[in-house]
Amino acid sequence: MKLSRRSLMKISAAGVAAGAIGLPANAQAIEELVIAYNVTLPSWDPTVGPSAVNPTIQGLYQSVFDQFILQQPDLKPAPGLLTEWGWNEDRSKVKMTVREGVTWHDGSPFTAEDVAWSLERAANPETGNPINFVWGSLTNFVVEGNTVTADVKQFDPTIFKWMYFLTGYVLPKAYYEKVGAEGFEAAPIGTGPYMVEKFERNAFVRLKANANYWGGKPDFDTVTIKFVPDAAARVAEVESGNSHVTLEMPYEEYDRLKGGPLAGVAAPISDIGMIFLNDIDVMLDPNVRKAAAHAVDKQTIIDRLLSGYGVKIDTLETPEYDAYDPSITVEYSPEKAVELLAASGYSVDNPVKFKIQTTKGFKPKDYEMVQAIVGLWRKVGIEAEIEVYEIAKHYELRAADQLAPAAFYNWGNSVGDPTTSTGFAMFGPSPHSVWDGEDLIGMIGPLWGEADEAKRIAGWKAVDKFIAENALVIPLLQYVQPILHAPGVVVTPHASGALLPHLMKRA
Amino acid sequence: MQLLRVFLLRLVTTAVTLVGVAVIVFFVIRVVPGNPIAMMLPPGATEADVAALTALYGLDKPLPAQFLIWAGGVLQGDFGTSITTRQPVLGLVLGRLPATLELSVMALVMAVVIGGVAALTGTRRRGTRVEGAIDIANGMALSVPDFLWGLVLILLFGVLVPVFHISGRVTPSLELPFTTNFYLFESLIRLRFDLWLDIVSHMLMPALALAVPLAAIIGQLLKQSLKETMHLDYVTLARTKGYGENHVILREALRNAVLPTLTLVGVQFTFLIGGTVIIERLFSYEGLGNMAIDAVINRDLPLIQGIVILFAVIFTGVNLIVDLLYAALNPRLRHA
């Protein structure tokens, strides 16, 4: 084909025209913030169904709805819709003071009635709140002015922490009762920093800044959150300038782009990677468990596989958690692992054999990490067979206490309390635990209702020490969340992992 | 008469197929590992809490009883309620269907045009380097799966030369005056060419990614059929009558050569719709495929059932249409 000057001009004109089809320029002056988010939003009610307990969706909810108590980027609580909260002397009642002067997105006033109704509703199993049993520990709500009091049915030292955790959201009583569940789903309102302007399921949500937000109007008037589950497509979104911010991409891509046209922030979040040990078969032998723990070179795995983006941990608590104890360590010592295995009659020539289960691609380099661990184990006399499964199967097996002797998993605990990390992961009767040792159950049991906070935290530290000494689980690392963004945006990361547009500002 | 008999027979087999799909899907997704209750089990839930949650979603009953309840609802147009979205399944899948249909039809049109042009050009220039180049291009197009074409297109026209949109179906900031979810079609009807252009610029890359492998298949088969037809007596007769090569190919040979391609296009169109699952995910396109992946990840059983049955209806419907078209176009069947 001959390329004439005329045809060349035609092609160029077509290119320019195509380029003008509304593609956003790569943020020099950002009018409308566009975020490429890694999950879709199935439902707007933050208290009901599977979405309510999906940690990755919470950032979307927190853009529109406020939680009872505000959680700061370092996971610490702060006054939010509740300005004060606490128990009475004998822990038989709770008292909450509600912020005044707050309005819902439709302009109606937010009241203490909304708080009481939201708590009562959360406790009602018929609404489909999967955590209703937590909220059920409070009853007989009484509203007087801007205070709400309730009777404590069963003392739970973490109840106020749940008020900035899963399903801990305040919803509008009058509006919800007027429009019903379906109407709320179609036009949700909250008291949060952004209001829902347009929502296309599986595609995007467009948010408008709440000018009356009690915490101050957000910097960006309009925010579009596109749901882009594919990591490669998310990277392309920010690289092309179609989006200004994205998260959760391969660390190699993050390193490639952060120093170039894009800026980046990578901070530790509250999610950890760990290996559950089930008290069956060879895992009943403490030497095998301890050898398996000592043979894992966590720092090398983090450096080589995760490009250094991870924090080595030896308990199920990260440095941000309340019961973190830096004195509890499990050293990397292949020599010690060999010795321990030899004591039980195992060696490289006569390895101990078991199965380890893992997901592949559910978390960054999950399968590769397990491959590396199996390689390290092989060197000391452990022959582990890898079984790859879907995360749904993991949940089912774990709930039925049918996990393999070892199973890789990642645990999220954005409130940082030891009950929601060590507690639920290691307490035998919990459906999340596969370790059923009576000694551990005996240690953890009294801590559930411990009213003395200092004693409670000390108790959990002792539990963590016991777990580490007996290798009842193998904690691996605290994840680091990579966020890429245009130079025109300043992103404040939240240690919960939630990407919050109201914490973003113009550079 | 023959056509009517073919139609009625196919209608009966279609109904039986759909019932079979419904039964298989219902039981298979309940047998595979992973259930929605385990997915949303909160920390600290007791056995009683698990039982209450299971009962809330109606999963505590025996499987046959669950099936009868669901099938009874389906017969009355109620496909159940999605566990994750808490919306009626029928509304959800019908709401997404237009997006997938528009994408599939656009991909099909692109495939037919690209494949057809390649076949006609290859036939017209048979024995030359052009035909060789077309064969090589066909081979390349066939050897790369659609989702990889998608990634290549994203890199080329989304990042390197950013002329098309990478994700979504329409620019979020645009006001849409549509009353149906057939955005592409309705924007044309309403003469809103600004919206039409925006929608097309979102659909071009996913549609092209879907179209490329199919275009290669069409191109290969049609060229082969044309080549065989070109040796038939009636084509030789046309040549001896003095008709030019273009006339011979387009007006004489194509009509007969197109029949096997038409059947193939029908079959491949169903595969193309199946391919939308991955492509829609890659391009964050708000269609049925994207929704299907979320439903599977979340073990949203009612939604999975609804989507699979709708896909089955589309597949069987397309096959039915192709069979009827074939019968109508094939003189041996038409005049039987």
User: Distance between the terminal alpha carbons of chain A, to the nearest Å?
Assistant: 50 Å
Largest sheet: number of strands, sense, barrel closure of chain B: none
Q: What is the first-to-last residue Cα distance of chain B?
A: 9 Å
Major sheet details of chain A? 11 strands, mixed
Stretches of chain B where pLDDT falls below 50 for ≥5 residues? Answer: none
Quickly count the domains of chain A. Answer: 3
CATH topology of the domain at 98-287 in chain B: MetI-like fold
Helical residues, percent of chain A? 25-40%
* CATH 2nd-level architecture of the largest domain in chain A: Roll
Radius of gyration of chain A in whole Å, from Cα? 25 Å
The CATH class label of the largest domain in chain A is: Alpha Beta
Strand content of chain B: under 5%
Largest interface: A-B, 69 and 64 residues
CATH C-level of the domain at 98-287 in chain B: Mainly Alpha
Tell me the Rg of chain B in angstroms.
24 Å
Protein name (chain B): ABC transporter permease
Keywords (chain B): Cell membrane, Membrane, Transmembrane, Transmembrane helix, Transport
GO cellular component, one term (chain B): plasma membrane
InterPro entries (chain B): BPD_transp_1_N, MetI-like, MetI-like_sf
Topology of this structure?
The complex is a heterodimer of chains A (507) and B (336).
Chain A: H1 5-19, E1 32-37, H2 49-52, H3 58-64, E2 70-71, E3 77-78, E4 82-87, E5 93-98, H4 112-123, H5 132-135, E6 138-144, E7 147-152, H6 159-162, H7 173-186, E8 194-200, E9 204-209, E10 222-227, H8 231-240, E11 245-247, H9 251-258, E12 263-277, H10 286-294, H11 298-305, E13 310-312, H12 334-343, E14 352-358, H13 366-380, E15 382-388, H14 391-399, E16 406-412, H15 422-426, H16 438-444, H17 453-470, E17 473-485, E18 489-491, E19 504-506
Parallel strand pairs in A: 1-10, 1-11, 14-15, 14-16
Antiparallel strand pairs in A: 2-3, 4-5, 5-7, 6-7, 8-9, 9-10, 11-17, 12-16, 12-17, 13-17, 18-19
Helix pairs in contact in A: 10-12
Chain B: H1 2-31, H2 36-40, H3 47-56, H4 63-75, H5 89-124, H6 129-143, H7 146-160, H8 183-189, H9 193-229, H10 233-240, H11 245-282, H12 288-297, H13 301-329, H14 331-334
